Amino acid sequence: MTEWRFWERAMDRAVVPGYSRIGYHLRRRVDFPPDPEPGALKGRTVVVTGASSGLGEAAVVGLARLGASVVMVARDGERGEQARRRIEADVPGAEPSVYPCDMGSLPDVARFAKALRAEHGPLYALLHNAGGMPAERTETAEGHEYSLAVHVLGPHLLSRLVAADPASCSRVVWMSSGAMYAQRLPVDDIEYTRGPYQPTVAYARTKRMQVVLAELWAEHLGDGGPVVHATHPGWTDTPGLRSSMPTFRRITAPLLRTPQEGADTAVWLCAADEPGLSTGRFWQDRRPRPTHYRASTRESRPDRAWFWRRCQELTHPWAGECHSHKGGH
Question: Would you tell me which of 3, 17, 40, 323 could form a disulfide with 328, CB atoms 3.0–4.6 Å apart?
Fold first, then answer.
């Protein structure tokens, strides 16, 4: 391990240096892989969920600047249109389209996927970014805890429907969070029905699920399938952070990354050459990172297998006739 790698790992373990804008700018100066080529995504369709603000909107800007035809998925269609107008003003020539879709609603996801296939055909990349942190335990119309639905089940279903074979998509990126390091895969209670509900715990648990699910998708699709990666943006100043964790935001405001800095690696994973050479990895600041720092958060292989089966079962009623190149349900 080089001296830089030692200090870089120390920054992550200390959290504040690695997750803040300090870590981003230091890494960018010392050891950042090159930017994607200009026009790297010209003529290619990229879908971004949760695209009406924060990290999602910033990702759309970055992708549009690389020439992508971006499909913006937003729960609130009007907010999505407002974001689209901001993006068109910011990026000359950009023409993103907006689709209203609640990623926590499995029927809504299925309807969106059908429209997407009909109107856009094959995708180049799919960025799972939609999310939320309700203050109280909330269930969707299908009876699923909201964080599980919007962070895990909705994205899993969308992947099944539009990104499960190389003919339909080339890359899938999951926007996770460094909060996942504190949690293990909760196979005994993925719906969070036991004990007092803590929003930050629910969020972190489902962010752990996203990282595991990205790895499982990579295993399921194999070498011939779409590349699948997960990433975390570090501490980023977004509307979601301001509304769900105002005290944390007030204390850390000088250290927070901008949405553009937080979205940088997700855009890079969608567009650069290097991420296409591997699959199933977890990234921050354009470098692969460990998925665990403590043994207590590691899941067993049987737990991983159970989790994959459960995600398949819970999304199956809306999966229709979707098939991956290794088979369907």
Answer: 323
Catalytic-labelled residue, pool 24, 99, 192, 203: 203
Identify whether the C-beta of residue 167 lies closer than 8 Å to the C-beta of residue 121: no
Number of domains in the chain: 1
Q: How confident is the model at residue 40 (pLDDT cuts 50, 70, 90)?
A: very high
pLDDT (tens digit, 9 = 90+) per residue, 288-298? 999 999 999 99
Q: Is 181 among the residues known to form the active site? A: no
**Contact status, residue 221 vs residue 326, Cβ threshold 8 Å:** yes
Distances (CA, A) of 41 to 65, 69, 92, 102, 269: 9, 8, 15, 26, 12
In a domain, 229, yes or no: yes
- 201 is a domain residue: yes
Q: In CATH, what number is assigned to the domain containing residue 275?
A: 3.40.50.720
Parent domain of 221: 36-318
Instruction: Say if pTM beats, i.e. exceeds, 0.90.
Output: yes
210 in the Ramachandran plot: left (φ > 0), alpha (ψ -120 to 50) or beta?
Answer: alpha
Q: Distance between CA 212 and CA 230 in Å, rounded?
A: 9
Helix axes 199-221, 301-315, angle to 10 degrees: 90
